[in-house]
TrEMBL record:
<dbReference type="GO" id="GO:0046395">
    <property type="term" value="P:carboxylic acid catabolic process"/>
</dbReference>
<comment type="subunit">
    <text>Heterodimer of an alpha and a beta subunit.</text>
</comment>
<protein>
    <recommendedName>
        <fullName>Electron transfer flavoprotein subunit beta</fullName>
    </recommendedName>
</protein>
<keyword id="KW-0249">Electron transport</keyword>
<dbReference type="Pfam" id="PF01012">
    <property type="entry name" value="ETF"/>
</dbReference>
<dbReference type="InterPro" id="IPR012255">
    <property type="entry name" value="ETF_b"/>
</dbReference>
<dbReference type="GO" id="GO:0009055">
    <property type="term" value="F:electron transfer activity"/>
</dbReference>
<dbReference type="InterPro" id="IPR014730">
    <property type="entry name" value="ETF_a/b_N"/>
</dbReference>
<keyword id="KW-0813">Transport</keyword>
<comment type="similarity">
    <text>Belongs to the ETF beta-subunit/FixA family.</text>
</comment>
<comment type="function">
    <text>The electron transfer flavoprotein serves as a specific electron acceptor for other dehydrogenases. It transfers the electrons to the main respiratory chain via ETF-ubiquinone oxidoreductase (ETF dehydrogenase).</text>
</comment>
<feature type="domain" description="Electron transfer flavoprotein alpha/beta-subunit N-terminal">
    <location>
        <begin position="23"/>
        <end position="212"/>
    </location>
</feature>
<dbReference type="InterPro" id="IPR014729">
    <property type="entry name" value="Rossmann-like_a/b/a_fold"/>
</dbReference>
<dbReference type="InterPro" id="IPR033948">
    <property type="entry name" value="ETF_beta_N"/>
</dbReference>
Length: 256
């Protein structure tokens, strides 16, 4: 099978995010960048499918030069090759522009199934996978927690509140991965060494024969307001402290 996994590089979930003084974006200095956690599930599912049915896994990523590290991480996990879309026009691109670039790269290679994370943890839009499917004219199966395929059709489970959908589709199709689909593997030392020699094709938008135009733009970023300091209720009598706590919750916090 020809399997594609789309990945995005995002700030580490433990990184301290600061907004630039002018609100134009985040201050990227000192940030550790990692593969989007939901994309890890997509890569793992692609690798499991390769192990089951054979074939190869191609990683596709749109991002600046530093995104090569994330592609190499996926290659170290076991993917075979990568495509890196590196173009200044993609800086600050919205979901539509990003999906347009990904679709242009994927159109140029054979594919039977495409895996994406169900959303990225930085912009949290959850739209790229669905737009990608539309641009490629493919069925889309989103927020998937279980997947089975025989190489011709795919059956997935999609959770809904209090129940689950079981959806079956012909291939090729786009599948977006949710937490619970699998447990992503760690890259082994031999895998890391092999990843250095695996091919990654770096392309810009001109090479892909496409231009992108964002449909939306972030006007300004504003950090959340600082939380007021917490209060400590002093005293030795639990009953008195409980009464004071109830009073504060009722009169100040207004939650009871």
């Amino acid at each position: 099978m020809n399997i594609v996994a789309c990945v995005k590089q995002v700030p580490d979930t433990e990184a301290q995010i600061k907004v630039k003084p002018d609100g134009s974006g985040i201050d990227e200095s000192g940030i550790k960048w990692v593969m989007n956690p939901y994309d890890e599930y997509g890569v793992e599912e692609a690798l499991k499918l390769k192990e089951k049915l054979g074939g190869d896994v191609t990683i596709v990523c749109a991002g600046p030069a530093r995104a090569m590290e994330t592609i190499r991480t996926a290659l170290a996990m076991g993917a075979d090759k990568g495509i890196h879309i590196d173009d200044p026009a993609l800086e600050g691109a919205d979901a539509y522009a990003t999906a347009t670039a990904l679709a242009a790269a994927i159109k140029g290679i054979p594919y039977d199934v495409i895996f994406c994370g169900q959303r990225a943890i930085d912009d949290d839009s959850g739209q790229v996978g669905a737009i990608l499917a539309e641009l490629l004219g493919l069925p889309q199966l989103t927020v998937v927690t279980k997947e089975e395929t025989d190489g011709k059709t795919v059956k997935v489970v999609r959770p809904v509140e209090g129940a689950a959908f079981v959806i079956e589709s012909s291939l090729p199709a786009v599948v977006t991965a949710q937490k619970g689909l699998n447990e992503p593997r760690y890259a082994s030392l031999p895998g890391i060494m092999k990843a250095k020699k695996k091919p990654v094709d770096v392309k810009n938008l001109a090479a892909l024969g496409v231009s992108v135009e964002s449909k939306s733009k972030v006007a300004k970023m504003v950090p959340p307001p600082a939380r007021p300091p917490g209060k400590i209720i002093a005293g030795d009598d639990p009953a008195v402290k409980a009464a004071e706590l109830a009073k504060l919750l009722r009169e100040e916090a207004k939650v009871i």
